[in-house]
Amino acid sequence: MATVLYHLGRVSFRWRWFVAVLWIGVLGAVGFASSKASTPADEGFTMPGIESQKAFDLLEQRFPGAAADGASARIVFIAPNGEKVTAAGNRKAIETLVESAADGSQVSSAVDPFRAGAVSKDGTTAYATVSFEARADGLTDASKKHLESAIDVARDAGLRVEVGGDALATQPSAGGPAEVIGIAIAAVVLLITFGSMAAAGLPLLTAVIGVGISMTGILALSKAFSLSENTGTLATMLGLACGIDYALFVVSRYREERAKGHEPREAAGLAVGTAGSAVVFAGLTVVIALAGLWVVGIPMLTKMGLAAAGAVAVSVLICLTLVPALLGFWPNAVLSRGARRDSERHRRKQLRTENGGSRWARIVVRHPLPVLLLGVVGLGAMATPVLDLQLGMPGDEAKATSTTERRAYDALAAGFGPGFNGPLTVVVDAKGAPDAKTAVATVAEDIAATPGVVAVSPARFNRAGDTAVLTVTPSTAPTDERTKDLVQTIRDERAGIEATADASFEVTGKTALDIDVAQKVQDSLIPYLAVVVGLAIVLLLLVFRSLLVPVKAAFGFLLSVLAALGAVVAVFQQGHGAGLLGVETTGPIMSMMPIFLVGIVFGLAMDYEVFLVSRMREAYVHGDEPKQAIVSGFRHSARVVVAAALIMMAVFSGFIGAGESMIKMIGFGLAVAVLFDAFVVRMAIVPAVLALLGHRAWALPRWLDRLLPDIDVEGEKLTGRHTAAVPAAVPEEPALSR
User: Fold this and answer.
1) The listed CATH number (1.10.3720.10, 3.40.50.1980, 3.10.450.710, 3.30.70.100) that belongs to domain 72-165
2) pLDDT by residue (tens digit) across 386-412?
3) Residues 45, 300: contact at Cβ < 8 Å?
4) Residues in CB range of 588: below 8 A, 6 or more apart
5) pLDDT per residue over 650-706, tens digit each?
């Protein structure tokens, strides 16, 4: 492989104009295709194989059109202190608002709270539901402004008015100014690492081009594959992250080869042949992690994973071709100022100077056991909160109190009880019952008698009269563990209820759906880990031709991801330090968070593993003793790996500044995971384990060695054929005592 990539790098460098124009043409063509592609209809969130989804499907079948998913606004009215909403003036203001809202151009219905019985027992709170024909993203500004104007009139009358639902909800930002600051920090890290504006800008430029091609490609294919706008979120994040990382390693290796005395084209070929080989296998591990999301069984998640895998594949191709082509345009600009001014003196200094990475490696290999124990115990302690992990789907209750959605949620909970915000929907199928109404009444009575149920609404039958819908109000909040227990209790008692009523029923609704999704994700986590870790071990076995190194890499990843998830639980669920991040309300961890964390962090972790350990193996196969190979690997790659980790932490930390708790959670989790994996696992635990194993770390049974193809990731075949002119007078780096 190294030889093939070496020639690819040289060809790309030589034919730089052709390569650059080709990629620009691809970007233009895909962009044109995306501009002509029609926007697909949003198929909504589906989760095959769970009861909530089955009940929802039955609801759509038996109640045609009843499951319409247009936008809605739940307008909550709170009377001033000492007053009631039923007072003449307050009632008049509410009725005026409802009448005005009903006149909106896209409004399908507006329900008067006094006619619908939507007034609290103490008379202090009421709510009106305004339903729209279009989805939230299809509402016109005129429709929104019309409703907002009606609300302002009610507020002017003295009522406190808050609005829930999705019609007027502010769409969460991905980080805003904080994210821009994170990208700026990444640029500064690149500049400090390379000491050259060109070298710092090249990875950013190629990463942006890759993301542009990936995103326009997703838009172009959106109609054919029913890809929603959210499909590209993960692709953007990982396309940018991997694009910067991969280009960073190739540019760094190019500078290293130039420092050894190679001319530009040769250095580009060697950089792509060696670092590029590591890029290919690092990219494959990321693709495996993302494509493996199909194991979870959520169509939306599968599409997001495949789209992101495509973005990573584009990043790899750009790194192998466009990066050496751009180096061909500016072969000396990416070098540091000192290297350009006095290349001979700079080469001697580079070979003579021991950097921080090699100094740290010497400390670790001299004291491997204490470093290993400290790292494992520390990460283990950070992971302990995982034992208290609760998965769910935080809603308005997790938003800041400054938002009207959160205030509406709190007002409804105070006026109607905490379970009002998370009702359960029970779909009763009485098609085979002798008397459908009697059967449904029996089901309603038995469910109403279940501890934890506050009320059961009157049954609403379909036109055929064989199916009914019941709304069950729990006594506890949607994210309360007792609500989860209530859903399980109703389902556990189903057999007896169905036998008595001679009808079947299923439980659905947003609360039940969130509970079912959380359970399915939790059940899928172990199979997902087994698939991605197992396949990655096979790939790492090919890369390092060792049994112990891949196994060590997998266990190190599990340590870092569990520690990161533990930190997320400690902050966002248990509340430790939540105020420092602006988290006002703690609660369950977003159901998708563990899967996202595992997939993304696994890819980045294997990046760092491949780039760092491949340099160690390269030194080992070229004759270094095991401990000396560790030091050599750190001397060549530690600084770049640190820079790559700092860049990712800066980018991910930008999401912590978002207003949405879920976005904060994702940004914090990813930033902490990179911190743990890059600096604790890869920089401390990995060299400590390799130092303890010695020659055994690189051992491979002969029979297995004969079976595995020789892919030559380290570029061993290139070394003998492409020797640089290094000054003989430069002293060698002092060897470690063995």
Assistant:
1) 3.30.70.100
2) 999 888 887 788 777 888 999 999 999
3) yes
4) 390, 391, 392, 393, 394, 479, 518, 573
5) 877 877 776 666 778 888 998 899 999 999 999 999 999 999 999 999 888 888 888
The class (CATH top level) of 424-508 is alpha beta
* CATH code reported for the domain at 354-393+524-709: 1.20.1640.10
Q: Considering Cα of 373, then 605, then 205, then 16, what sign does the dihedral take?
A: positive
Identity of the amino acid at 708: L
Name the one residue in this structure whose structure tokens are 């003793």.
Answer: 625
Calpha distance 239→603 (Å, rounded): 12
Looking at residue 119, the DSSP 8-state letter turns out to be B
How many helices, marked H, and strands, marked E, lie in the chain? 28, 11
- pLDDT digit string, tens, across residues 691-730: 999 999 988 888 888 888 877 666 666 655 555 444 433 3
pTM of the model: 0.80
Rounded to whole angstroms, the Cα distance separating 570 from 381 reads 11
Q: Could you tell me if 390 and 589 are in contact, meaning their C-beta atoms sit under 8 angstroms apart?
A: yes
**What class, spelled out in words, does domain 1-36+200-351 have in CATH?**
mainly alpha
Which DSSP helix (H) or strand (E) runs through 467? Answer: strand 467-474
Phi-psi region of 700 (alpha: psi -120 to 50; beta: other; left: phi over 0): beta
- Range list of H helices, 384-493: 404-416, 436-448, 481-492
pLDDT tens-digit profile of 561-608? 999 999 999 999 998 988 888 777 788 888 888 887 887 788 778 778
The two structure tokens encoding residue 719:
């070394």
H or E segment to which residue 590 belongs: strand 589-590
**Exposure string for 136-165, b = 16+ CB within 10 A, e = fewer:** beebeeebbebbeebbeebeeeebebbbbb
The SS3 call for residue 423 is coil
User: Residue 481 is encoded by which pair of tokens?
Assistant: 């563990």
Query: Could you read off the pLDDT of 428-472 as tens digits, one per residue?
Result: 999 888 899 999 999 999 999 999 999 999 999 998 888 999 999
User: Positive or negative, the Cα torsion across 42, 48, 53, 55?
Assistant: positive
Q: Residue 440, CB half-sphere, CA atoms under 13 Å: how many?
A: 23
Note the Cα 426 to chain centre separation in Å: 33
Phi, psi of 367 (to 5 degrees): -135, 60
354-393+524-709 and 1-36+200-351 share a CATH fold = yes
Angle (deg, nearest 10), helices 481-492 and 494-501: 50
